[in-house]
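Got a spare moment? Tell me how you read both lines of this record:
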Amino acid sequence: MTKLYVNPALDWLLVSGVDDFLLLDETERTPPDYPSTPAPMTATITSISPTYVSVTNSLKRQVRSRGAQAWQMDLYYGAMTRATFAPLWAFLINQSGQFKSFTVALSAFTPLGSPSGTPLVNGALQTGVTLATDGWTPSQTVLKKGDWIQFENDAKVYSVISDAISNGAGQANLRIFPALRKSPADNFTVYTDPLFTVAMVTDQLPVDFDQCLKARGFSITFQEVL
């Protein structure tokens, strides 16, 4: 089943009875909301993993993870005419600063592996940083370190941290970061072209126009929201 993702904090459906709710983190998978043209010239990708750190008087360091992670992306555009820039500008101002969220694809970051086949989650109730999958083309390096993946019914984008090689039956164990935020169901789709659900990190959106005719370079920062 092919799906896209919406804000799971807002979308619950009462499915049966008073206390039986289903988390709706899904809808039909469609192209990303964010315009693909004009394309950014460069991108900076940041992994944010908050931690608590303290140092005692004896200089003993104590650290604790908050158990959370998010991606941030800074996109940089070169000079462009107002006609080229206007559709992008219209989309961004329509987000009302940080108020709305939307999906964006980093189409230049195609997988380094060879993710052919129809990859699926292999078994229910999986947790942690290792996920059993199947449906890959047999005996291939289907994903490599640094590739991004996403699972059906989960808006979170994960990074592959070890090369994944399918066996003769098309099965592969994926090591990912961060840990699964929820257990995907058996036979849920594994996407190798993830859609990041993001929002702008500021309410201000300035752009510098040269003689009011050309945007003299433009940058925008998004952060993953779930």
User: Anything to note?
Assistant: The longest strand covers residues 70-77.
